[in-house]
Amino acid sequence: MACDMPDGLDIGLVVINSGNVETSAGKVMACDISIGRDAGLVVISDGNVDTSPGNVMACETSVGHGAGLVVIIVSTVDTCEGKVMACETSVGRDAGFVVISDGTVDTCKGRVMACETSVGSDAGFVVISDDTVGTFEGNIMACEKSVGCGAGLVVINVGNIAGFVDMRDVIVKISSGKVIACELE
Fold first, then answer.
1. Residue 114 has what pLDDT?
2. Cβ–Cβ contacts within 10 Å for residue 82, how many?
3. How far apart are alpha carbons 93 and 114 in whole angstroms?
4. Residue 93, pLDDT score
5. What domain of life does the UniProt record list for this protein's source (predicted)?
6. Domain-wise residue ranges, the chain
7. What is this structure's pTM?
């Protein structure tokens, strides 16, 4: 349960990995292999994360940095000054921009225009899905399995959710690295 890397910090922090995660008042207290920092930062990784002064510098499979920035990929990520510069299957952008995809991502001026399985937009939107996500004017409209909305909020659900889920006031229960339930504080 102990984490030999820096703990996660600040509002909206969520760390999801293949190990166990302890939470207290909605904050990640310890983790096995993943680390996040800053408002709404999320890092999901199956590999090792190297950090320097609390910031994610390099990681085998995932790197995130900045206000709500999230990148989840299956290959190497090159970073420059905390921003994702290139990756094989996913592209992220600051100000809460999130992309999680197993397929090709088309971008235009730093924004995700199309994606095989998942699309996110500004203001902390997060989508984690194994199926198609419908969008309209940059907003997540529906998702078969999972959808998140709000500053730095994340939800992973095994059930069906249509619309947004606000997790700012919930405690997340995690089992085997996956969010299985959330409850009001």
1. 28
2. 15
3. 14
4. 30
5. Eukaryota
6. 14-184
7. 0.17
